[in-house]
Specification:
binds zinc ion; 4-stranded antiparallel β-sheet; Four Helix Bundle (Hemerythrin (Met), subunit A); 45% helix; 226 residues; alpha+beta; elongated; 2 domains; single chain
């Protein structure tokens, strides 16, 4: 399942304007999809930017969280702070055991995304894919660490997933989308939010493929235990 950390919603909030602002898509307390009651508890303007302090009341767990959104106009107010900080995504033990560094990199990229550092998030998600793919290669083939280390990501994808389009295509989409977060020359119409969403969707497929391969390699039933 893909986790979208934020979403934009429209709300009047008795300001006389239609405000469009960013809130978390999951309640930071209970993690359930978020459709909170929202109160504006403070507003101030600083250097042309409007700031709202919002109190959100979760309709599921009943707890309150605080969100600070800022924008130059009321129709595009971006989340700057959230209390409490959302919990990091958790992964299946099969993946935790296969690649603890993938997990920590993925969670770092997620934190970067949550505070709006999308370039770093894009680089981080790509790096997490490379670590997962290489840890998978190390544990599931006879290739040595030294040998795997010599392959760049494009070569490694081709070598270990070239015969499996369900692994190869998603890994390649992540690699190529990530180029625009890393490289100096990128298209003028580059849309970081859309590209990051696309990258994450394909990364999710790749994670599922690796997890599936791990499930087949380590079945839980006695019949297949060595
Ligand atoms: Zn809640």
């Amino acid at each position: 399942m893909e986790i979208k950390p934020t979403k934009f919603i429209n709300n009047m909030l008795n300001t006389g304007h239609t405000n469009k602002f960013e809130i978390p898509s999951l309640c930071p307390w209970c993690g359930v999809s978020f459709n909170p009651t929202i109160d504006r508890v403070a507003t101030f303007d600083e250097s042309d930017a409007h700031t709202f302090v919002l109190q959100m009341h979760c309709n599921y767990c009943g707890k309150k969280s605080i969100n600070v959104v800022i924008g130059k106009d009321y129709s595009n107010m971006v989340q700057q702070m959230l209390y409490p900080a959302p919990k990091a995504r958790q992964f299946d033990d099969l993946l935790v055991n296969l690649s603890p560094r993938f997990i920590s990199l993925y969670q770092s990229a997620e934190r970067a995304e949550q505070i709006g550092d999308l370039d770093l998030a894009g680089m981080g998600y790509r790096a997490s894919l490379e670590i997962l793919l290489k840890d998978f290669a190390l544990k599931s083939t006879d290739d040595s660490k030294e040998k795997i280390a010599t392959f760049n990501l494009g070569v490694a994808i081709n070598k270990y997933f070239g015969d499996n389009p369900f692994g190869m295509i998603p890994a390649d989409v992540v690699r190529l989308d990530a180029n625009d977060f890393v490289h100096w020359d990128r298209p003028d119409d580059f849309d970081p939010v859309m590209t990051l969403e696309e990258m994450k969707s394909y990364l999710e497929i790749f994670i599922t493929v690796v997890k599936t391969r791990q499930m087949i390699a380590h079945p839980p039933v006695k019949r297949y235990k060595k």
